[in-house]
Write a structure and sequence with these properties.
By secondary structure, this protein is of the alpha/beta class. It has 3 domains: 41 residues; 162 residues, no CATH class; 216 residues, no CATH class. It contains 15 helices and 14 strands.
Length: 443
């Protein structure tokens, strides 16, 4: 250091050889090194696709790092249909697990954004699902934390996930692995900003998603609404069976076993028909769209279906243009939609998300389920039913001999019946379930 510089330092009361000055010099080196490291780690894709900034936010104390800090992941509001939201939620949970963090309880959406933009209001996770039950069932796997539990303020890292064709699944996975390591693991909160979690790249096997879905237990109020619908279906079924003198309504067995019913997720609404026709053109296949008549015919050809039986038609009434869905069913198959069942008012008092949750539960509890393999709703119902049978020790959950058989009416099986359907739990990703497939594990 030359004389002029030494003189300048002395003018501020500092000496180059002093301990204080050396400490200042070391701090400057550390700060510069840290900035260089952060810049190098952020180099994923273009600068528009990937950036982060350090801010201050309150934290919770549920997840603790080696340094004693709590660590959390925050994600954007989750949107789209109920089952896309469930997939997005599971994907956010699994992302938090990969980063060794606890997921801050995300906001869901009460309505479909493309149908009721003015009603796209955030709804808390615990207004739809049971928070404590989730953490109890998923303990040791993934966990949620409430924002109300945040007590401290510390650095927050904002991360934008990449998007576009140039952003590959490998890039995304590499980024997640980087952010689970030093220096990013020092931050208490990583906030992911950008696109909806449903559209994030998938890095986890179906069984991991199934584990998260098992922890999603509907709130008690919503579950009670589903109870009312199922009870109404079985009550009508009991009356019908008594009127025809069915053996299932006589003797001790009728007191122990509820009257069975089938549920058909009938995708013939105007929005679905537009979507499925475009999908058929893009994928160059003709096994996605199904007409009302085709669905009715194939359900009627299910082998071993004991009649008379109530057929609950799970359909979005507001979007239904064909009001003749009750006609043309085979003798012994008794179709009921919400209005005929007398539960339309029960549904109408709730926003879209809760209506869909009730319908999902009614389909899940059905003795026989028939859906469309390109529908996320149908696919997750079948996944849940498959998981239930696996938990019971069933090795091949297909056909009428199992407890909860499922079928895909858009795929033709034997004797023009719908094809038996079960989820392949050995798949390495949820791709087929997220976007649909004509390759189902029972084929």
């Amino acid at each position: 250091m030359d004389l002029s510089h030494r003189t300048h330092l002395r003018s501020f009361g500092l000496h180059w050889n002093s301990l204080a000055c050396k400490c200042v010099f070391l701090v400057v080196i550390v700060l510069v090194f840290r900035a260089v490291c952060l810049h190098s780690f952020s180099g994923f894709g273009s600068s528009e696709d990937n950036f982060f900034a350090v801010k201050s936010r309150p934290l919770t104390s549920n997840s603790v790092s080696l340094t004693g800090k709590s660590k959390f992941l925050e994600v954007p509001q989750i949107i789209w249909g109920l089952n896309n939201q469930k997939i997005a939620l599971a994907r956010a949970c699994l992302t938090a697990r990969m980063l060794n963090r606890t997921l801050l309880m995300p906001s869901l959406s009460a309505s479909l954004f493309y149908k009721e933009v003015d009603l796209l209001k955030p709804v808390s996770f615990d207004k739809i699902f049971q928070f404590e039950k989730f953490n109890s069932l998923c303990k040791g796997f993934v966990q949620l934390s409430r924002y109300s539990q945040l007590v401290n303020r510390t650095d927050l890292l904002e991360l934008r996930k990449g998007s576009g064709r140039r952003w590959t699944a490998d890039d995304d996975l590499h980024q997640l692995r980087r952010f689970s390591q030093h220096p990013f693991d020092e931050y208490e909160i990583i906030r992911i900003v950008g696109k909806n979690p449903f559209l994030w790249h998938d890095h986890w096997p179906v069984k991991d998603y199934a584990k998260v879905f098992e922890c999603l237990v509907l709130g008690e109020d919503i579950s009670r609404e589903a109870d009312k619908v199922v009870s109404k279906i079985r009550e009508i079924g009991l009356k019908v069976n008594k009127d025809v003198g069915s053996p299932r309504t006589n003797g001790l067995d009728s007191m122990l076993q509820p009257v069975p019913y089938a549920a058909v997720h009938m995708r013939i609404e105007k929005d679905w028909m537009i979507h499925c026709k475009k999908l058929e053109q893009r994928l160059n296949i003709s096994e996605i769209c199904s007409s009302k008549d085709q669905i009715i015919q194939r359900v009627g050809n299910i082998e071993g279906l004991k009649t008379p039986i109530i057929i609950y038609l799970a359909v979005a009434d507001d979007l239904l243009e064909d009001d003749s869905i009750m006609a043309g069913w085979k003798a012994g198959l008794l179709p009921f939609e919400k209005k005929k069942l007398g539960v339309l008012d029960l549904y109408k008092k709730h926003p879209y998300l809760i209506q869909s949750a009730i319908d999902y539960e009614v389909c899940l509890r059905s003795d026989v389920f028939v859906g469309n393999s390109f529908s996320t709703f149908s696919s997750l119902v079948v996944l849940d039913r498959t998981q239930k049978m696996i938990n019971m020790g069933v090795k091949r959950p297909c056909g009428m001999i199992v407890r909860w058989p499922s079928y895909a009416y858009n795929l033709e099986g034997e004797s023009k019946s719908p094809r038996p359907w079960a989820t392949n739990m050995s798949k390495s990703s949820l791709q087929a379930i997220s976007y649909g497939s004509n390759h189902i594990s029972c084929s």
